Amino acid sequence: MGYTFQPVGSALATALLALVSVQTSDQKTSGNLELRLQPEAMDRGVPQEFSFLPVNHTDHDVRLPLPAIECSDSYNGEIRLHLVFTPLKGGPVGGGGCAADRMDWPPIMERVREWRIVHPGETLTLKARHGQLHYDGQQPGRYEFWATYSPPSILPSDQEKLHAAGIDFARESLTTNHLTFIRKR
Known about the structure:
Largest sheet: 6 strands, mixed
Shape: elongated
Structural class: mainly beta
Order of helices and strands: EHEEEEEEHEEEHEE
Distance between the termini: 30 Å
């Protein structure tokens, strides 16, 4: 999985998002971050890879623990891709699920040293292919994707330590817009 920083407003990202069939306006922005979903590696109308883009829209640095993507065991939060697939013939088909938790969390001031600093107007790019995201993408039908970010659980006493140290961090759940793709064959 690759991580890169890039300025928000990239012409390429805008052009890719313009190719999407449908976008609904259910984007949720927290106090310091926004999550965007960018389709990539298209195969007959369906993305085979996605980039998840937490964007810092503040005027100061925000610390972000590198979240696990899809069913990975992590105390750093999680990004999950959601899919509603409707085959060309028949009704909606559901997907699977997973659960994970860790009990061996290091102290917060040790954890924060590993967190990425996302500067104002920058984004952290996290990529994953369809195999890691647990969907096939090869069947004809309608694919509606969206992503959610769940921040790590941080005790109130640890939040106070971070605040006292002047550290702003990802603390709210985020949801991207829904993106719809049609595969005809």
